[in-house]
Write a structure and sequence with these properties.
Layout lengths: L1 H6 L5 H4 L6 H10 L6 E7 L6 E9 L9 E7 L1 H42 L8 H27 L6 E4 L1 H13 L7 E7 L6 E4 H19 L4 E11 L5 E9 L26 H12 L3 E6 L5 E8 L6
Parallel strand pairs: 5-7
Antiparallel strand pairs: 1-2, 2-3, 4-6, 7-8, 8-10, 9-10
């Protein structure tokens, strides 16, 4: 159709997807061959005008399975995503402007009052200067507090940290695992070291990171039976510091050839792991906590992926 020709010009499918930028889409087509139909994912495609985000749906035509024919649907989410982000920032900017403007008004009025005394060559009434000064200082304190709040909002280190021990870490992993145990072909287990070192972390962000691991593991396993193991154990970080290690191990096909840690790159896509955008968020979460991510293939197939965080105490 005309729209398809505009997005993917050319004759054959090979010609249309020949541009290296469309490698993520080629990977999605490869993945669809071993996935139940319809297969959906998102791919990020680089271009001269910036990265474009597409929702991809691939529907195999059962009556023509011998020919391997399928319908490929692409939905460009780029402008939609940008518009959502812009709207959110506009709302935030309006709220910030209102918060900052409020203290500025009394400061401006106080300055105008002082100016009038000077213009009229009048002596200020007893106590007026002290009153004006106190008012300005009060408003400056309010303004400083609000700017501080804004700074904490924009600061990547501003996490809602809470303490964790072995019991609370197990509760977190069990909570995440429970969301995926309804998968009829997927067995999810949880293993937490009884002597897990205490640490601190933003529970919501850690939960999101672990959920991203399970989403990717579920996609890797596909329609066949598979197992996924979530674990938390003690670890030694680079430099010998004490830490904790969260891992998700699956018995799927594993990543394609090449360094497994490329999975954490924002625009990296593999045949079975989607666009990788969720794993890029995991990397940012780990780094914000002072930790790091890792990914390794498993002997016999599968992937072990996770992150490490600093512990509160040193190993004994």
């Amino acid at each position: 159709n005309d729209a398809a020709d505009r997005v993917l010009p050319g004759g054959s499918l090979a010609e249309r997807l020949g541009d290296p930028a469309w490698a993520p889409l080629r990977a999605a087509l490869d993945a669809a061959e071993s996935k139940p139909s319809p297969y959906e994912t998102r791919v990020a495609v680089p271009g001269p005008g910036g990265e474009r985000l597409f929702r991809v749906a691939i529907v195999t035509l059962p009556e023509e399975a011998e020919e391997g024919r399928a319908i490929l649907l692409l939905e460009d989410l780029t402008e939609f995503t940008r518009a959502d982000r812009l709207a959110a920032w506009v709302d935030a900017a309006r709220a910030i402007a209102h918060d900052i403007k409020n203290p500025l008004t009394p400061i401006r009025l106080a300055a105008e009052r002082l100016k009038r005394f000077e213009e009229r060559h009048e002596a200020a009434p007893p106590g007026a200067i002290a009153e004006i000064s106190a008012n300005v200082l009060r408003q400056v304190a309010i303004l400083t507090e609000r700017i501080g709040r804004l700074g904490r909002f924009g600061d990547p280190a501003a996490l809602e940290r809470q303490p964790f021990d072995a019991a609370s870490a197990r509760a977190l992993l069990e909570e995440v695992a429970a969301d995926f145990r309804s998968h009829e072909r997927l067995t999810v287990s949880v293993d937490v070291a009884e002597d897990l070192r205490p640490f601190t972390g933003d529970r919501l962000l850690l939960r999101d990171a672990l959920t991203n691991f399970l989403v990717n593991a579920t996609e890797a396993v596909g329609g066949r039976a598979g197992t996924v193991a979530l674990s938390a154990s003690n670890a030694v970080l680079s430099g010998g510091a004490a830490g904790v290690r969260f891992a998700c191990a699956d018995d799927g096909p594993g990543p394609p050839e090449g360094p497994a840690d490329r999975l954490f790159e924002p625009a990296f896509s593999t045949k079975s792991r989607g666009s990788g955008m969720g794993l890029a968020a995991v990397r940012r979460t780990a780094e914000r906590h002072g930790g790091a991510v890792f990914a390794d293939t498993r002997p016999g197939g599968g992937l072990v992926i996770g992150f490490t965080l600093p512990a509160l105490s040193s190993p004994t």
